[in-house]
Structure prediction request, 339 residues.
Amino acid sequence: MEKQRIAYIDFMKCLCIMLIVMYHIDHEFFNYLAPHLNDALQAFRLPMYYFISGIFFKLYSGYADFTRRKVNNILVPFVFFVVFAFAVRLLEYGFRLIVGAEPIEVRLSQLVEPFYLRYWENTTPLWFLLSLFWVNVIFYAMQRWIKPLWGILLATVALSVVGYELGGNKIELPLMLDTSLVALPYFVLGWGIKRIGAIAPTKWDRWGILALIAVAMPIYWLSDFMNLHFQVLPSYWKLYVLPFVAILALFWACKPLPHIPLFCYYGRYSLIILGTHPLILQPVRFLLLRQGMESGVELTLFVFVVTMLVELPLIWLLKTWAPRFTAQEPFFKPGWKLR
Prediction:
């Protein structure tokens, strides 16, 4: 039986992925609207994804079952979207030859670059899946080895300090492990929210929008630029206090929301959008620039609308014909047997 969806969680995921798509179309888009807006949005855009994942953390029936599920839900889609992006890049290579555009480089090594490079051309956002996998593994180990709550919180702070120092000294660990240490507190915050039962509806939920309004301006003025991917980090307190406040206020404000079909649909399948949106927006943006449209608000909004519309049939296609590769069905069945 399919698990019942939580509407406001799907809406939060939709909000995250839409902001990510717009940022990837034009990094400066939000600053066109207000000078510091991008920095303020960075305070919760990716941290909230870790937070939501923390809400759904479970130990399951043991290490083997936990690992199987995380491989199914995170690593299998990661590998699939790497291969999918490479295939699309081959098509783009042929298309550019046909229209006489500047050719792009295609190498077989691009299939393995995501496993040892911090940046790769085909679909860079997939780094998040590697990081999320390690955050889950790290927190699973903490849950198994550390019993008191204060011990888990202390270990979370200690590991985040290690990650922060690695970032400050430009020391990169393989497979996004350094970023995973920095992101761990956001994940633990989500786990903590579920632990105290705050995901259930309460009579106080109607006040959430006021909390969001109250914290919006302080977050706007106090936030500094941060980039978890490349470990460009603000001061330690801004790295956590501001995102915590922003995430909790947004979480609280979203709780009373009903099921909003299109937005909840995008949120439910945000993993597919994460893995495919660069493959849509890049050629669309390329064609519009080639036609003479200049970078700016108009171009970004147009590319965004086209990208999200194309995602609708693409989501249906991948969830229908590749469900085991997009975390809609388990790739590895219980017992690690392919059936």
